[in-house]
């Protein structure tokens, strides 16, 4: 009962000890009345020298006395605390506050105060707690605030105190025994003010302990950093009179409109004379300058604040480097520098902050590697480095952060392997990793994931393989693997998981989907599956949509207007379609456009309206209705124009920043940054609407771009790569767009001629005159007609043979990129395009006809692992094949060149093997054109910019026909590649798809071993030594000894699988070799080697 009474008295600020003789000095009375008038607390003089003796109701103003002082005659009172938070106060911060020389705490937060911070506040020698946050203060921070000093409550060391148990430096629960606990309840606060509530409650409870010898402890539990925080407060009562050492300093100027630089003097806050920080002191001290417009550098003097436990500088305009001296802030538990313009490398000294539990550095311009010293931050609970420009190897030391709960690593330039151990960290709750380059990370089938994880986002990486079956019992609320290269079958348990988990598997290469997707409202499966294997479902494949909406692929539209997020409307004679749906994927009723969105807003309270937002105040332009609403997306937003005629289009994108308000503190310094792609080409990088408009909600931004449509589809992609703001409030990050207009840049046949059309006719006339001159030159014998022959090059318009020759510099040796037995390959640099041109050596008439017929058969083939052929030219003494250009040349160059252009790590090699197998499977099992390539070798496997393998050089390929008896193929005798030649060919002259399987097996051996196959030497009757060597290693159980010694790491299980596959593929008997379909199944994990050990029943060209 006594304890409860003590709690009530201490929690009621009207409780005080006083006598009738206790008076308030006249100068403080005068200051109080001036303060009250300027803050409009009252209109007439109210305070008198007897204020501290007034009754409890009058004392509830929030102005508190301390009557423990004595003069010569009697006890004297002084104003110790002013707490006027959230009182609706206006005006300015009164300078008269500086006359309250005994003031220790000043809290004017959450009001509407304007003006600057009085310089005289720095003269208050007793002031240790200053909270002016959440106002509208302007101007710079007075350097005089550097004169304020922390308060040491008690210097007596508490017996049994253990600093190492601290959540803040030195402030942790002690091992008290037999203690009665009174639960006070739970306090909830938003992230921008969490420290204020926490420390105010600590101070209040501490006051209770001062009066009644009561020990107080505080336990803290933080959830995901971007969500609400919760504090559980417990009061423990003891009969101890000694107190823990408390060092207190609170300065909160956050959420204002302060500008200028941070005064270096703030880093020189003085301690009491002679006071040093003992190993077992407790400091609850913070500086919060966040959410302002502060610029300049972070003062290096902050390193002197060794007692500070929290430093918040986020959401400002700070620039320059992070000073290494911050690593000297030995007591720091929370450091937040996010959403500034900081740059340079992160100082390794930050790894010295052993008490650091939260480190937030996202949305800056940091570069370089993440120092290995960060491995020492073993107390980290939350770490975010998203939206920077860090590079180098993925920081593997993170796997040793045993206490981490929230890990945000998106939007950087890390590369390499993601350590598997990260996914099973004991306390990990939320994990976001994206944009890791060249990782080609593949989850083993047995991969474990922490059972209680709630948020997992691994989108926009190079993930391969399938989703581990061991994840079937997770309790995730969100899971995304969007925009990867995952393959195999989507497991059936995903269907059940979606009942409680939002799942995004869009834009992958899964081979199969075994459940109906129409009913999956919380699952995004758009473009999830390989087009050749995708189910007949309009939510998974854009090509199927085209077939449905554009029968026969016939384009019918030549323009498109969309009011993104808004209603149907007519503007300037153009009809804008309504775009007000909230689904992740939508196809318009007319079938001429669609959109797809992926990603998740980092919020617990997400609803469908967060994808469409309405403007708060209008924009004064003629097209104003287009900017009243906008569509948003968490990460990726794609619009598709469907059934469009081929040709060049003018694409106009309309933007207006309608979420960030100029008068709203929480958004005044935020920025939205994203990239814009047209037809897969990035056209706008780090596009910032607010910056372009010189402020928010003021100016509409219109971007005029052009795009060429070749396949009746126009793709507009807005992608957030983690740059800019990173907020838990939906809509403050990710792309935003207000409207789209697409009009043709070609003539539609109208009779009425515009100025533009007249100009175009003029230009066309000039071109025609040039063509007539060329025709005359031909007639006079000056120019051969072959030079005017048109050749397709994968663009809207073909080029002439002359232009193609000129693009190769007339087949200059400088433009050579490859040479084979049948010809030389050249790089052709056209004005807006690069293609590869293979010039064949002299061909016979039979060879010419064969080249033509094979091209016309091949040009209809479309697969991501086949090089696309554009055209063939056969002229007098000139034989050309034109196909797409591969940036990284051939696999042979990458493996065997002494100075290769690219280096292939293990995951890249594995994916190349899988890509070749997928391409061959497509050739062998095409429903109409079954084909044997007959030239599978490393030199004929080309690599694009992402190291995707593409099969090229179909000069030796043959179409085979199936007779009545299954798998009996035509016999064709011709030249073949030594070293990759199946043994049945020189013996019997027969060709089947098992010929390609043999060549594929040799290529696998070269990829895994890094050795070049020696080939046949018929004079000495030598066999391929590499095949024999691997077979011998297999019989001795030493396959791993064959793995390329230059690889720094590799997956041993995958290596054995691939080498065993190679042994089967190179078996002398074609009937024992697996099919390419079986090989793909093994590589994707759907089958094991043992599953394909039984020979298929076929003759396959082998004769008895």
From TrEMBL:
Domain Protein kinase intervals: 811-1089
A Pfam family per the record: PK_Tyr_Ser-Thr
Binding residues annotated for ATP, in chain numbering: 838
Gene3D superfamilies per record: Galactose-binding lectin, Phosphorylase Kinase, domain 1, Ribonuclease Inhibitor, Transferase(Phosphotransferase) domain 1
Subcellular location(s) of the protein: Cell membrane
Key words, A-Z: ATP-binding, Cell membrane, Glycoprotein, Kinase, Leucine-rich repeat, Membrane, Nucleotide-binding, Phosphoprotein, Receptor, Repeat, Serine/threonine-protein kinase, Signal, Transferase, Transmembrane, Transmembrane helix
GO MF term set: ATP binding; protein serine/threonine kinase activity
Protein name, entry field: non-specific serine/threonine protein kinase
Organism: Rhamnella rubrinervis
Lineage: Eukaryota, Viridiplantae, Streptophyta, Embryophyta, Tracheophyta
